[in-house]
Amino acid sequence: METKLEKKYGLFTAIAMVVGIVIGSGVFFKAEKVLTATGGNLSLGILAWIIGGIIMIACAYTFAVMATKYEHVNGIVDYAEAAMGEKYGYYVGWFMALIYYPTLTSVLAWVSARYTSVLFGFSITGGECMTIACLFLIGSYALNALSPVLAGKFQVSTTVIKLIPLALMAVVGTIAGLLNGMTVSNFTTVVTQVNTSNALFTAVVATAFAYEGWIIATSINAELKDAKKNLPLALVAGTFVVILVYILYYVGLAGAVPNEVMMKGGEAGAKLAFQTIFSTLGGSLIFVFVIISCLGTLNGLMLGCTRGLYSVAARGFGPKPEVFNQVDKETNMPTNSSIFGLLLCGIWLFFFYGAILADPIWFGFFGFDSSELPIVTIYAMYIPIFFMIMKKETSLSFFNRFAAPIVALAGCVFMIIAACFSHKMAVVSYLIIFIVVMIIGTMFAQKKADK
Question: Nucleotidyltransferase: is it a keyword of this entry (predicted)?
């Protein structure tokens, strides 16, 4: 008898997945990047957060509409297959399994290790940091492989824990800033005069990457109770929570320290703000919360990563589908797929170190930021899906069939333009590797007959 993935996650876990994956390390440093990009113009920065949030909500809502119609194994792959056919679904799944999931998972392992290293005074590019990153990767894999239910509970717990410092800064920082005049001063003072359109474009790029991650929550579609009802609720509710938290935290920071100090703070900006509001001890404790936040994000990414090749094999595609579609009867985990996913994470962690952290970098022209360009690729892959929604889903209302997909399409095009603007020639080197991986995928694009 074939072993199927069980319905074991509820609505709260799914919402926590969306919030927990998106709100991770980005919330603690993207605020400073947005502030710097806008020259300390808080109003312009808030507008950037709103625009980035609209892009996320439009895409999430459009997929939520699709979720009410399709429910199979692995969210985005199912939607791609339903809209464009089996072969397109396969190539999306192949990309997710070999590039998207493992690149982001490996980067989050390093980010978690980075803040741990800051806490203990280690180098963020040295051997200690990379050793910790490897340990976090293995630990997250073990948690998901040995007890998927416990991994889901850990996701809920880390989401609640990470919201504590954010809520404290949003509330206490804002109140303190209003009382001492810091908030008003920061909102009425522009540190550096910048070109408004260029500044807004750059700032929205930063928020777009900070908002990324919600789509990974669709990987538990087949394991979510009453998925057709709960997944749309989780996607929409989760994205709204993220936007609200980001903006309130951004405003809270404005009540903690002057804009010019935050802009010069670098990676210690959040720590400096918390030290100002909650004393030196509070500034140190924030790094503990940051680490927990990053580990929660890592856990959510690892959940998707371990199911990457399974989503392909379950359809009869890919290398050895009879091997990679096996599910462990005790843990209800696709074991072979998860082991392969962990291996890919290790390879991409090695690449990230050589391309970004090593001095000098190891890969020269072929070095690129593996934390951002794969995200842009998945947005590009959304485009034909949204077009097909408008063409095929005649039973939907005008808003669901046309309005929401058009806004989502505009957001996807923006992301592509933003990538070219931000990464320049690195886009070319990334595309070369992407094409090679996809060509290899063509070797396994023939569907195997069920035995």
Answer: no
183 and 256 in contact (C-beta within 8 Å)? no
The position carrying tokens 């994956």 is 21
232: amino acid identity, one letter: P
* Sign for the pseudo-dihedral over CA of 281, 286, 289, 290: negative
Encoding tokens for residue 373? 């360009």
CB 378 within 8 A of CB 101: no
In whole angstroms, what is the distance from residue 207 CA to residue 421 CA?
15
Tokens encoding 222: 């087949």
Could you tell me the pTM of the whole model? 0.82
Q: Give domain 11-442's CATH architecture.
A: Up-down Bundle (1.20)
- Strand partners for 224: 9
Residue found under tokens 């938290």 = 245
Residues 381-385: contacts with CB under 8 Å, at least 24 apart: 381/80, 381/92, 381/95, 382/59, 382/408, 382/412, 383/409, 383/412, 383/413, 384/83, 384/84, 384/88, 385/66, 385/79, 385/80, 385/83, 385/84
For residue range 309-328, list pLDDT tens digits in order: 988 998 899 999 999 999 88
